[in-house]
Specification:
- The structure holds 2 protein chains of 2 kinds.
- By secondary structure, chain A is an alpha+beta fold.
- Chain A has 2 domains: 227 residues, P-loop containing nucleotide triphosphate hydrolases (Rossmann fold, 3-Layer(aba) Sandwich), CATH 3.40.50; 130 residues, no CATH class.
- Chain A contains 9 helices and 20 strands.
- Chain A has a 6-stranded mixed β-sheet with strand order 6-7-8-3-9-10, sandwiched between helices.
- In chain A, α3 packs across α4.
- The longest helix of chain A is centred in the middle third of the chain and has 17 residues.
- Chain B is mainly α.
- Chain B has 2 domains: 271 residues, MetI-like (MetI-like fold, Orthogonal Bundle); 222 residues, MetI-like fold (Orthogonal Bundle).
- Chain B is 72% helix and 0% strand.
- Chain B contains 28 helices and 1 strand.
- Classes of the chains: A alpha+beta, B mainly alpha.
- β2 of chain A pairs parallel with β1 of chain B, so a sheet runs across the interface.
C-alpha cells in the first residue's frame, strides 16, 4: 500500500547555526512521484535522508501515512520505517551475490529463505538481470549495479521508495533507459516515490510533482507544467532551463499577469512577458525559456531584438544556436530548423508564454543608473 | 541563537563527515524509559571514547613525552638538578656518541637507496611484464617482510662464521667474514629488508599509472628516453616514499644493530640508546637527548616525504583503474630475470635460512658436518627452552587481538570524524611511527619506573602487563595505518542501505560492515602477531625477569654460545609464525563465505 508523506516545518542544523534545511513543509499524496530538484548544497540529500531516517531532524515533524516518524523527541530508525531506497553509489554489499543483495530487503518480512529468493529472482528478471543472479556486484557494470539496487528497492513492495540521485553516475544513454524503467516500475507498484536530482530534464521527465530547493528552503512545489510556466523565483526559472536573461524596462502592465517590456539596445522593440505587476516596478529581468525564442531574418519587422550567431550545432531534430545580443549577453539552446551560419546577423522573436518577468525591487533610480 | 544559511558542498552533508554520528533510536515512542535508554547509550559511547583516549594517553603519549622531556628537564623527573638544560645534548655531541649517529645516518641512507634501487625493477617486472611465476615471486616478498631483521642477521653471522656451514663444507674464506661482519653486511641486510617497503610504495603507484601518459608523450613526438623522463617523475612521490620509509626503517632498526652490527663492533644509534639505559647506572637523560636526534633523523624525511607527496600526483594515480599494457619479455630475458630473482631471494632469504637452519642442526663448535636433532629435542623437551616460545605465542595473540580492536576504532575515528580530535589522533599515530621501538621501550622503562607511580599503587615496571601494553602501543600505529585504507573504503551507504532495508544496528554492522573488512582485519591481526612473536627491542628492555619471551631466550642462548639451541628456537619460532599465518588464512578460506573472500573484484565498465 502506498504511503503518504507529510513534512512539516522540518529544519536540520549542523553545528550550532548552519542550516541544511530550513522550515521545509509539504504533503505528498499516496502513489505520487515527487522529484526534489536543486543544486549541490541545496539540502535535497539531507531532506531525503531525513525521510529515510538516516539523518535526525533538528526541528519539525515527518509523518508517513499519518504516523509520526520524526520530530524533536521521536526518531524512528530507518529499519522501522518500512521504506526502500536506491543510493547514488548503489550501496550494494560487495560480499553478497546479486540475488542475496536483493533478497536481503525481504528479511524484515520473516519469509522463508526460498520464498525471499524466489521473489528476488522475479524482480531481477523484471530489471533484466535474471542471468546475473549469482554474480557479485564487482562483476557488474555500473548500469547493472544500479539495476540491482533498483530491484532491491522494489522487491519489498514498500509503500515508499526513495531515490538518491540514482542516475548521476551513469552515462547519458544508460540514464535515459534506466529513468524510463524507474518511472514505469515505481508506478506499476503504485508506490509513493521521492526522487532527488540536480538534473532538470530528469525531474521533468519523471515527476508528478516537483519541489525546488535552494539553500535549504523549498522555494516552489508544483506540477512540472506549473514550475516551467510560472517559476516562483529567478532561481527556479534558471534552474529549470533558460535560453538567457534580459534586463528590461517595464513599459506598462497589461493586466495582473503580463506586461509590455523592452530590452536595452539600439534595435530593441517592446514585447510581452508574463509576470505579476502589482508592484508596478519600472525595471526587471525577463527569463526566457529556450522554446520561447524564434530566430528570424535580421530585417524582419517582427523581430524584438537583433543578435549575431556565435555557434551552431546540429541536434538531429534541428540546429541549436548560441547568439550574442547587442549588449554582449548570450542566449543559448535556441532551436531552429534552418541552419544560421556563425557570424551572421539574426532577429529574435520572443513568445510571451516562455518569457517570465521578475520585476526589480531595487529603487528605480539605481537601476536606471546601472542600465545607463 | 544567530542563524546562518551557508552554501554547502554536498560533502559537507555526508553523515560520515560529521562530527556527531547519527544515532538511530529504535521504535518511535515518547516513552520516558526509552529516552533514558538513549541517554545511557550516549553515556556508554562517551565512556568508550574517553577510555580510548585514556589508552592512547597512558600507552603512547605519557611514556614517550616524559622520556623525551627528560632530555631538557631532568629535575622534573628527579634525574638531576636542573629544570631546563641543554647539557645532555652537549654530552651527545662527543666523539663516540656522534659516531653512532653518523654510522646510522649513512648506513640508513645507503640501505634506503639499495631498497629503492632493487624495488623499482621488481615492481615493474611484477606489474608490467609477462614474467612467469611473478605471483610467486611477488608473494615471496612477504617472507622478507614477516621475518624480523635480527633472524637474517644471525643467519648471515652463522653462515660466514669460521665454524659455520661454509667452513664445514670447506668453502669458507676470511674475506667472507670481513665482508659481512662490517658496514657492507649491515647495509646489505638493512637494504634487503627495505625492499618490500619500497616495493609496496612503488608498485601501488605503478599499478595505478595507466599507459596513457606514455602514449600521450609518444604521440606528441617524445622518444623512449623523453617518455621515460616524463613518466618517471609521476612516480617520484612513490620513489620518495620508498626512500623515506626505507631510511626511517633502517635507522629505527634494532635487530641488526643488536646482532650483526654489535658483533662487528659497529655501533648504531639504536644500540647506543640500549647501552646507555642498560648500563649501570643507567644514563636516562643522555639516552633521552640522543633519542631526540634519532627521532629527528626519522621524522624529518618522513615529514618531507609527506609534504612532497601532498598535492602531487597521488590524485592522478588513485583515479579509476586504467588498462595497463603488459610488456612481453623474450625467452632469454625471462630466463635471465628469473635467474636474477632466484639469486635475489637466495641472498635475502636463502642464505640466512641456511645459516640459521644449519646451525640448529650442527654442533656449536668444531668442523664436522654431522647432522643432529639434539637441539630441537632439547627445545621441545626442556621446559626452560620451550616456555619462552609458548609465552611469546600467548603475548602475540593477546597483543594482536587487542591491537586490532583498538586500531579498528582508531581507523574508524580517523575516517568518520572531522575536526580537532581526528587531527590530534592522526598526529599522535604518525609521530609514533617515527619513534623507534627502542625509544618507545626506553620511555616505558623511564615513565613506569618513576617513584611516584609506586606511591599511588601502580607497580607495572618489570611486569608482563607492561610488556604487553608496550607491545600494543608499538603495534598500534602500523596497524591503524593498515586498517585505515580499508575502513575508509567502506562507504557509510552500505550501513545505511542495510538500515533502510530493515536491518537493526547490530545486524547491519555484522552483515554490511564487517564482511568487507574481514580480510584486512585478519591480515592486520596476523601482521601484529608475527611482529610481536619475535619482537626484540621492546622485549629487551621490558621483559619481566624470569619470564623471557622467545627473542630474549634466543639472544641469551646465542650470547652464551649455545648457538644450536638458540638457532633451533629461532627456527621453531619462525615456523610457528608461518604456520599460524598459513593456518589462519586456510581457516579463513574454509570458514568465510565466498562473498567475503572475493571483496575487491574489479568492475566491468
Amino acid at each position: 500500500m502506498s504511503e503518504s508523506v507529510t513534512v512539516e516545518n522540518v529544519s536540520k542544523v549542523y553545528g550550532k547555526s548552519k542550516y541544511a534545511l530550513q522550515n521545509v513543509s509539504f504533503d505528498l499524496s499516496p502513489g505520487k512521484f515527487l522529484v526534489l530538484l536543486g543544486p549541490s548544497g541545496s539540502g535535497k540529500t539531507t531532506l531525503l535522508r531525513s525521510i529515510a531516517g538516516i539523518e535526525k531532524i533538528t526541528e519539525g515533524r515527518i509523518a508517513l501515512s499519518g504516523k509520526c516518524v520524526a520530530d524533536n523527541k521521536v526518531h524512528v530508525s530507518p529499519n522501522e520505517r518500512n521504506l526502500s531506497m536506491v543510493f547514488q553509489d548503489y550501496a550494494l554489499w560487495p560480499h553478497l551475490s546479486v540475488l542475496d543483495n536483493v533478497a536481503f530487503a525481504m528479511k524484515r518480512y520473516g519469509l522463508r529463505k526460498e520464498d525471499r529468493r524466489e521473489a528476488s529472482r522475479k524482480v531481477l528478471e523484471k530489471v533484466g538481470l535474471s542471468s546475473h543472479v549469482d554474480n557479485y556486484p564487482g562483476e557488474l557494470s555500473g548500469g547493472e549495479q544500479q539495476r540491482v539496487a533498483l530491484a532491491r528497492a522494489l522487491v519489498g513492495q514498500n509503500g515508499l521508495l526513495l531515490f538518491d540521485e540514482p542516475l548521476s553516475n551513469l552515462d547519458a544513454d544508460l540514464r535515459d533507459r534506466l529513468r524510463v524503467e524507474i518511472s514505469m516500475l515505481s508506478r506499476e507498484m503504485n508506490a509513493t516515490s521521492v526522487y532527488i536530482t540536480h538534473d532538470q530534464s530528469e525531474a521533468f521527465a519523471l515527476a508528478d510533482i516537483i519541489g525546488v530547493l535552494e539553500k535549504g528552503c523549498l522555494v516552489q512545489m508544483g506540477t512540472p507544467e506549473e514550475i516551467y510556466s510560472s517559476p516562483a523565483t529567478p532561481f527556479v526559472a534558471r534552474f529549470t532551463g533558460l535560453a538567457g536573461e534580459l534586463r528590461v524596462e517595464v513599459e506598462h502592465f497589461l493586466n495582473d499577469n503580463s506586461a509590455v517590456v523592452r530590452s536595452f539596445g539600439e534595435n530593441a522593440k517592446p514585447f510581452i512577458a508574463l509576470g505579476k505587476g502589482t508592484d508596478k516596478a519600472k525595471f526587471g529581468h525577463v527569463m526566457v525559456r529556450p522554446a520561447a525564442v524564434q530566430l528570424c531574418s535580421v530585417t524582419d519587422d517582427n523581430a524584438h531584438m537583433r543578435a549575431t550567431i556565435k555557434d551552431v550545432a546540429f541536434r538531429g531534430h534541428g540546429y541549436e544556436h548560441v547568439v550574442m545580443l547587442e549588449d554582449g549577453a548570450q542566449f543559448a539552446n535556441i532551436l531552429s530548423h534552418h541552419k544560421h551560419e556563425r557570424g551572421t546577423g539574426v532577429g529574435l522573436i520572443f513568445n510571451f508564454e516562455g518569457c517570465i518577468l521578475f520585476p526589480d525591487t531595487t529603487p528605480d533610480r539605481e537601476l536606471s543608473d546601472l542600465s545607463a | 541563537m544567530t542563524t546562518e544559511i551557508v552554501e554547502y558542498e554536498k560533502a559537507d552533508f555526508e553523515p560520515g563527515l560529521q562530527r556527531e554520528e547519527t544515532e538511530y533510536v529504535g521504535k518511535g515512542t515518547k516513552d520516558r524509559s526509552f529516552m533514558s535508554l538513549i541517554g545511557k547509550t550516549k553515556s556508554l559511547y562517551r565512556m568508550g571514547s574517553l577510555s580510548f583516549w585514556m589508552v592512547l594517553f597512558l600507552a603512547i603519549i605519557i611514556p614517550c613525552a616524559s622520556f623525551l622531556l627528560l632530555a631538557v628537564s631532568p629535575r622534573l623527573f628527579g634525574q638531576g638538578s636542573q629544570f631546563f638544560t641543554l647539557s645532555n645534548f652537549k654530552a651527545v655531541f662527543n666523539g663516540t656518541t656522534m659516531l653512532a649517529l653518523t654510522n646510522s645516518l649513512w648506513v640508513a641512507s645507503l640501505a634506503a637507496l639499495l631498497g629503492v634501487f632493487c624495488a623499482i625493477p621488481l615492481a615493474w617486472l611484477f606489474h608490467r611484464s609477462d614474467l612467469p611465476f611473478k605471483k610467486v615471486f611477488s608473494a615471496a616478498m612477504w617472507l622478507v617482510l614477516l621475518i624480523p631483521s635480527w633472524i637474517p642477521a644471525i643467519g648471515w653471522e652463522r653462515f660466514v662464521n669460521p665454524e659455520g656451514i661454509l667452513a664445514r663444507i670447506h668453502l669458507w674464506a676470511p674475506w667472507q667474514g670481513n665482508l659481512i661482519m662490517g658496514p657492507f653486511g649491515i647495509v646489505l641486510l638493512l637494504g634487503l629488508r627495505n625492499i618490500p617497503f619500497s616495493y609496496l610504495a612503488i608498485s601501488n603507484a605503478l599499478s595505478g599509472l595507466g599507459q596513457e601518459f606514455e602514449h600521450s608523450a609518444q604521440v606528441h613526438g617524445a622518444s623512449r628516453f623523453q617518455t621515460a623522463k616524463l613518466v618517471v617523475p609521476i612516480l617520484f612521490p612513490a620513489i620518495l616514499s620508498g626512500l623515506a620509509i626505507g631510511f626511517a626503517e633502517a635507522i629505527s632498526d634494532f635487530g641488526v644493530a643488536a646482532t650483526l652490527a654489535y658483533s662487528s663492533h659497529f655501533t648504531l644509534a639504536t644500540y647506543y640508546i640500549f647501552q646507555e639505559i642498560g648500563n649501570f647506572p643507567p644514563n636516562f637523560p643522555v639516552a633521552a637527548a640522543f633519542s631526540w636526534l634519532v627521532v629527528l633523523a626519522v621524522a624529518v624525511p618522513l615529514y618531507v616525504q609527506a609534504k612532497l607527496s601532498r598535492g602531487r600526483s597521488h590524485q592522478i594515480l588513485s583515479g579509476r583503474s586504467r588498462q595497463v599494457v603488459v610488456k612481453r619479455l623474450s625467452a632469454p630475458v625471462k630466463a635471465a630475470v628469473i635467474f636474477c630473482l632466484c639469486l635475489f631471494y637466495f641472498v635475502a632469504v636463502g642464505i640466512p635460512t641456511i645459516g640459521v637452519v644449519s646451525s640448529s642442526l650442527l654442533s656449536d663448535f668444531g668442523s664436522s658436518l654431522h647432522i643432529t636433532f639434539i637441539n630441537y629435542e632439547k627445545v621441545f623437551t626442556t621446559a626452560g627452552l620451550g616456555a619462552p616460545l609458548e609465552r611469546s605465542i600467548e603475548y602475540a595473540a593477546i597483543t594482536a587481538s587487542i591491537t586490532v580492536m583498538v586500531a579498528f576504532v582508531a581507523a574508524r575515528k580517523l575516517t568518520k570524524t572531522k575536526g580537532k580530535s581526528a587531527k590530534i589522533l592522526d598526529f599522535i599515530l604518525l609521530s609514533s611511527v617515527a619513534l623507534p621501538g627502542i625509544v618507545f621501550a626506553a620511555g616505558y622503562i623511564f615513565a613506569y619506573n618513576l617513584p611516584f607511580l609506586s606511591k599511588i599503587g601502580i607497580n607495572l615496571y618489570q611486569t608482563t602487563t607492561l610488556l604487553v601494553i608496550a607491545y600494543i602501543a608499538t603495534s598500534l600505529p602500523t596497524n591503524v595505518r593498515m586498517l585505515f585504507g580499508s575502513v575508509s573504503q567502506v562507504s557509510d551507504s552500505l550501513n545505511n542501505a542495510a538500515r533502510v532495508h530493515g536491518a537493526g544496528p547490530v545486524r547491519s554492522w555484522l552483515r554490511a560492515i564487517l564482511p568487507p573488512l574481514s580480510r584486512p582485519v585478519v591480515t592486520a591481526w596476523l601482521l601484529a602477531f608475527t611482529a610481536i612473536l619475535l619482537e626484540l627491542p621492546v622485549s629487551e628492555l621490558l621483559y619481566a625477569p624470569g619470564s623471557p619471551p622467545a627473542s630474549i631466550a634466543i639472544q641469551d642462548n646465542l650470547g652464551n654460545y649455545h648457538f644450536g639451541i638458540g638457532m633451533a628456537q629461532a627456527v621453531v619460532a619462525t615456523f610457528v609464525a608461518f604456520a599460524v599465518v598459513g593456518t589462519v588464512f586456510a581457516l579463513y578460506r574454509l570458514i568465510a563465505p565466498r562473498g567475503w573472500r572475493r571483496i575487491g573484484g574489479t568492475a566491468r565498465v
